[in-house]
Amino acid sequence: MTKNKKKSDRLVNLGLVGILVLGLAILGYPTFADWWNSYHQSRAVASYVSAVANLDPAEYDAIIAEAEAYNTRMAETGVQWTMTDAQKAEYNAVLDITGSGIMGYIDIPKANIKLPIYHGTDESVLQVAVGHLEGSSLPVGGESSHCVVTGHRGLPSARLFTDIDRLTKGDTFTLTILNRTYTYEVYDQTIVEPTDLSNLTIEAGKDLVTLVTCTPYGVNSHRLLVHARRIENPLGVANVNADAIQLQPVYVAPLVATPMLFILLVILLISTRKKKSTRERVTEYIEESMDDMNEGGISHGD
After folding, report:
1. Do 21 and 65 sit in the same domain of this protein?
2. What pTM did the predictor assign?
């Protein structure tokens, strides 16, 4: 076999390995990206819990009272979806104890969701977490309040609110703000146009939360609203230990299997190449021997 042939075979093998690596990367990206975002979301929640634990007990009531006063003023003046710069500055300062914009976190057991809630709905927030809709009531409950929490679904890098369509009447979720947990029970779902805000207004005497995401899945032409009302915290409800970061089997299996599959395929390629090289050496030896015999003039039957 010529040197050019050997070089060509090496290039083909390298090309196959490259295609394999690219294919594995494409297949593994959604799982890895979702795990990576979930990890950082959990760390964000853990950092928030730690910051809350370091507050002076007297500060809890003062911060919550400030947020409740904000909601009371909003109930009296009505929802203002468009804010002035001064109003935005006031809004961004309330409940922001870490300086990162996190005001608390939401836990939806049925959809396996636990995410930090940030002030506002900028795209930089919605790519990695969920946001509190500016102009809606803050998530500290109270009569005549309506808090709106919004998140993306179907992102290749994070699941976020992808599964909130699974919530049905009677399902519950919690909002944890500072050292307090607020429980809400789902009572309805509606689908509206993106510009329809009529279902997000404050209703006198009611303590409501609405979760918002895009729908239909992958089309995103409308908005899915999951409506919930405040209920008493069930016995045993406690804040989740955010330091206990657990990975679902659906994440762990691909993460473990992908590198193992890659290693096995590389070993197979190397093993196949070694066997091929051995055959090539034997073939070359036979060919050289035959050439030597012909050059030496050995004839048969003399």
Report:
1. no
2. 0.69
